[in-house]
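Let us practice reading a record.
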Amino acid sequence: MTIETELDELLPELDLIEDPDLRAGVREAWLSAIEETEIESLETLPWFPPVQRKLDLPNETLLSHVRDVTGCAVALAETLSGRRGAEINMDTLVAGALVHDVSKLYEFDGTDATPVGALLGHPYYGVHVVARAGLSVEIAHIVLAHTRRTNVEPATIEAAIVRRADEAAAAAIRLEAVSDLRDAV
């Protein structure tokens, strides 16, 4: 099985992106990250090693988190589109959700922080990864604004939705270890 086929199987949400060029760009961001970091298995790649160690959550994976974020983002967008009539570009939303953490492949080597993780952090390096893959500035903005680890606030509805979806998905992971999320900081 090729890495492209494996990626399509592990991230079936890629099929939600209607624009074939955008879908190809998201694939390229993941494939270049896999190739450059020499990741052997996407399926077992940890979600966020420091938090996982602290909360004893060794089995949480990055791909599971990315899929949760994407699913939450789509559900939230559908609700806001239907009830509020919000104009949301679903291709941009899904693409942004799928690549929001792609640069975590560069941030950790197993469970240890790399120079990217120690000096930059994944949202900043993520802008480089998605730009190099030919993705738009709107997608780069989603990556940069998806976390409070940057000072960039979401400027688009798509970025705001991905940030909230990421927060909710991360809270759900933390809830597996604590009964009060304030204890998981």
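A brief commentary: The chain is about 60% helix and 0% strand.
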